[in-house]
Amino acid sequence: MINVAAAVSAHVRPGWVLLDHVTVTEASQVLDVSLADAASRMRASADQPERTSQVRAMYRRFGVDPTKTRPSSEALLRRIRKGDPLPRINNVVDICNWCSLEFQVPYGLYDTAGLDGDIELRTGEPGESYAGIRKDVVHLEGRLVLADAQGPFGNPTSDSARTMVQAGASSILTVIFAPAAIGDAALARMLETTSRRMREFAGGIERSRGIPPV
Length: 214
Fold this sequence. Notes:
The protein has 214 residues and is of the alpha+beta class. It has 6 helices and 10 strands. The model has no long low-confidence stretch (mean pLDDT 94).
């Protein structure tokens, strides 16, 4: 499902899961207790998770200062440690944020209706950019990006408006931007947890999942 360019394969391995027949709903109350519990657990630990450091190292390898352009997982952790709740967008986005917070790795979530052809994880080329979700133009040169036949559509910090998941989406691709230091067994557990939560709380049916070979 995702081809990994040789230039990035030594530093990042994207796990992915593809689900069909999801039902996207806004601010699903069935998630309230689970999200609050997750935030409480992460807030209670003052330590810097090892994976946060691994993700920061991955960012630096691609020329990105993670203290200025924060990984989405770390931004969630900082948010809840300030006493704020997890953001609520819709049930599938909320599930991704839940998993990203707990596992401390960046997640990407994409409506497959907006995707075109094969997908590659690579670095952004000079001049590449896209319109971000609730943001201005996201510049991508030298940064990790997911790209299809139309060009880049996602990265570990902010995804594109082109593939954002909204009400009416039925098939979704979830991508875990895992540093290469995370082993296959740990990444497989993340994918299983993500798929199970999507099936339980969004009614999805898993079509496929995968981890690129070493």
